[in-house]
Amino acid sequence: MASKTPAKANPISFFEKLDPQSKLVFISLGIASIGLVIIIIWNIFLRLTAPQLTLAAGDPEGESYIISEAIQKVVKQKSHINIKLLPTGGTSQNLQLLQDGKAELATAQADVVGQEMDLVESRQSQPQQSQDKVSPTAVAVLYQDLFQLVVRDPSIKQFNHLRGKTIALPARGGQYQSFVKVAEHYGLMKADKPDFVISGLKSKYYDDKQAEEDFKAKRADALFRVRALGNLGIAQLVQDQDGRLLPITQAQAMKIKYPAFESAKIPQGAYRGNPPMPGIELDTVAVDRLLVAGEQVDNNVIQQITRIIFENRQAIANAIAEKHAEVKPLVASISRPRENDGTGIPIHPGAVAFYERDKPSFVQENADFLALILTIFLLVASWFKQLKLWIERGKKDEADDYIHSAINLMDKSLGNLEDRQKKLDETFKKAAEALIAERISQESFRTFNEAYKTTREAIEREGQITYQEIEQKQREISAEYIKAAVALLQDKTINQNLLQQELDAILERVATDLIAENISQESYRTFVEAYKITRDAIERKN
Q1: How far is CA 384 from CA 205, 387, 390, 392, in A?
Q2: To pair with 155 at 20 to 30 A between CA atoms, which of 254, 350, 436, 438?
Q3: DSSP states of 388-410
Q4: Quick one: DSSP state of residue 4?
Q5: Strands 52-58 and 82-87: what pairing?
Q6: What pLDDT sits at residue 130?
Q7: Is residue 495 domain-shared with residue 353, that is, in the same domain?
Q8: Cis link prior to 278 (omega < 30° from 0)?
Q9: 104 has a pLDDT exceeding 50
Q10: ω into residue 275 within 30 of 0, thus cis?
């Protein structure tokens, strides 16, 4: 009967052999792994279906666009939200795009947004007017813009000296609206007819770059900007074109009509140190540069954007290119929009949710991520542990097969001693090859080796016993032949010739048994000695 061939590892049969507790562990790990795969697929789905927002960001060379670009990069790094930047002509166009639903986010001057809110309220009070316009809501204050008036003519020393002068300014956008508000306060606007000339009225394509060219070419007496302190364009006009900054006073008085206006100062030497420009600290007007969102934008999306902006200011500053290094410090001034300041600008509910949150701990803020990491770690550790057990059990199962094969060879019914010894040696060879191939462990091989030695010793003992039994049988047969030969001498009835024939017949049978290995050569030699003695005795009998 052939010995048992060691079975190959089979996951199904392996699972069936597991105890109930191990089965439960494997099933639990399987369910957890499926859950992890679902989470990964869900995250991929979220990325594919991430919110897509358009941000109307103003002039590509302006501070609001530069900061918006940095915010876009950081938001993309920190979330699934995608923001597309849209260069525009300024606040008025930004708000128009927002109201028409062509943009979900925009940068805007607070005074212009407040004016727009007044218009919205006016439309709402008139049922016949369209009500499908989107209202802007504040998300964050990005920085403060300052009203900055640059002149070259030394006779122009204050704002009201602009009467009859040409102002380099695009006749559209929030910047233009801010200038008109200041001009009205100083009495330079009568019945909507200005006492000055706006260069931008000459062409609808007139922009800030063309305004700077007009100032440099002396086609304009003054240039007005609503820009952050340290603006590179203004600095070039001051340093290279002999431009001078004039004060814009009475900010608090203007605030009565325009609540978004704030008093501000342009420090001495802000644009040049020697000689300083301005020569003394100047009063001016400041307005917040806001990041606003359409009221229809999902609260959770705005809350997430607000959180990323406020928690990653350094990353936003780092995302600004070195060629715009003067803009980096503005990021530090990002703050919460003011409430109940008379501007009528509401804060988006999503932003409010962030501002009014309880400050979470690091663990709370990253609970989902930490839980995912912990789950992955536990799953990997459990799988490694179970895989190790699986491999070890597989090795043990193969070793057990070799052990059973060796032990079974003790059974005499499996063949003669020689065949069983040969099969035992073949089993040992297979086990040694399995050890070299690391299909069984050294510990399992040592256990098999003990079984191999036990079986080998048992076979050897069986061989010894069998040999002894054969020898005993051979001696008994030889003794019978010797006894038969001696008995011939005692038979007085048979003559000499017949006795000799009988003795030769016995010798012939002994020789036949020798050939058949029924008696040993030693027994044969003993009989031959007895044969010779008997033959000599028969011959002497005569």
Answers
A1: 68, 5, 10, 12
A2: 254
A3: HHHHHHHHHHHHHHHHHHHHHTT
A4: P
A5: parallel
A6: 47
A7: no
A8: yes
A9: yes
A10: yes
Main-chain dihedrals φ then ψ at residue 231, nearest 5 degrees: -55, 130
Per-residue burial over 305-332, b = 16 or more CB atoms within 10 Å of its CB, e = otherwise: bbbbbbebeebbbebbeeebebbbebbe
Write phi, then psi, for 148 (nearest 5 degrees): -130, 125
- Whether residue 38 is contained in a domain is answered as no
For residues 109 and 177, give the distance between their C-alpha atoms in angstroms, rounded to a whole number.
10
Distance CA 380, CA 178 (A): 62
Local confidence band at 2 (pLDDT 50, 70, 90 cut-offs): very low
Q: Do 180 and 319 have their domain in common?
A: yes
Q: What are phi and psi of 191, to 5 degrees?
A: 50, 45
Long-range contacts of 495-504 (CB under 8 A, 24+ apart): 496/538, 496/539, 496/541, 496/542, 499/538, 500/535, 500/538, 503/531, 503/534, 503/535, 503/538
**Which of residues 315, 341, 357 is at a domain's end?**
357
Of residues 142, 198, 132, the one with CA closest to residue 170: 198
Contact 275, 239 (CB under 8 A): no
Residue 504, classified by CB atoms within 10 Å of its CB into exposed (0-12), middle (13-18) or buried (19+), is exposed
Across the chain, which distance is largest between two alpha carbons, in Å? 181
Within this chain, do residues 92 and 236 fall inside the same structural domain, yes or no?
yes
SS (H, E, C) 508-540: HHHHHHHHCCCCCHHHHHHHHHHHHHHHHHHHH
**What CATH number is associated with residue 102?**
3.40.190.10
Distance CA 57, CA 103 (A): 10
What residues does 262 pair with on adjacent strands? 286
Are 186 and 261 contacting, i.e. CB atoms less than 8 angstroms apart?
A: no
**Residue 177: how many other CB atoms lie within 10 Å:** 18
Residue 97 lies in a domain: yes
In a domain, 27, yes or no: no
Supply the pLDDT for residue 440: 83
Cα–Cα dist 245/279, whole Å: 9
Rounded Cα distance, 513 and 519, in Å: 6
Q: pLDDT: is 36 or 26 the higher one? A: 36
Q: Which of 337, 357, 377 is the last residue of a domain?
A: 357
pLDDT digits (tens, 9 = 90+) for 336-394: 998 876 777 899 999 999 999 865 556 666 777 778 788 888 877 777 776 666 666 66
**Neighbour count for residue 486 (Cβ, 10 Å):** 13
Residue 476 and residue 349 in one domain? no
Count of domains forming the chain: 2
Q: Which of 8-17, 172-181, 210-219, 480-489 has the highest mean pLDDT?
A: 210-219
Residue 499 lies in a domain: yes
Q: What is the pLDDT of residues 460-513, one digit of tens each?
A: 888 888 878 888 888 888 888 888 888 877 777 777 788 788 888 888 888 888
Q: Which two tokens stand for residue 413?
A: 């019914």
Per-residue pLDDT at 61 exceeds 90? no
Parent domain of 70: 52-357
93 half-sphere exposure, CB direction, 13 A CA radius: 16
